[in-house]
Specification:
Order of helices and strands: HEEEEHEEEE
Strand order of the largest sheet: 1-2-6-7-8-5
Shape: globular
Oligomer: single chain
Length: 139
């Protein structure tokens, strides 16, 4: 499969169409099978106890999966999440960015299904696993 958007194009799209996430999230790499994205963790992402909050992990997974799909279909701003499931498996390491590794499992005309594993930067074991379905608007 030929990619329609590389990491630079995805980051530029996020900066222009989603300025509210600018500077927090970064698509690091994308190829035919995997997209890797980073959440630059700061104090706003933490909950009491010094761990990264569930909503911050969910947001990373959602953004990374969205970008993985866009890398294959192009800049379709109105693709939306229609289903999501997340398993929190272990506490993220305090003071480390989070890394999401995503795979698109099925890409149809109307629906796309993908998954993300989230890791603390440098960690070997995932802290969360997420699966999502996106609706792709008609052309």
């Amino acid at each position: 499969m030929t990619l329609k958007m590389d990491a630079d194009a995805l980051n530029a799209f996020l900066d222009s169409d989603f300025p509210q996430v600018a500077g927090q999230y970064l698509v690091e790499t994308v190829d035919e099978t995997t997209l890797t994205a980073r959440l630059k963790v700061d104090q706003t992402h933490l909950r009491p106890g010094g761990t990264v909050s569930g909503p911050a992990m969910f947001a990373l997974a959602d953004l990374a999966i969205y970008c993985a799909i866009l890398s294959r279909i192009g800049p379709v701003a109105l693709a939306v999440t229609t289903n999501a499931s997340i398993d929190f498996m272990r506490k993220p390491a305090a003071g480390r960015d989070l890394i999401a590794q995503c795979r698109v499992l099925k890409l149809g005309r109307v629906l796309a299904v993908a998954e993300a594993l989230i890791f603390s930067d440098g960690g070997a074991e995932p802290v969360a696993r997420c699966s999502m379905t996106y609706s792709i608007p008609p052309k």
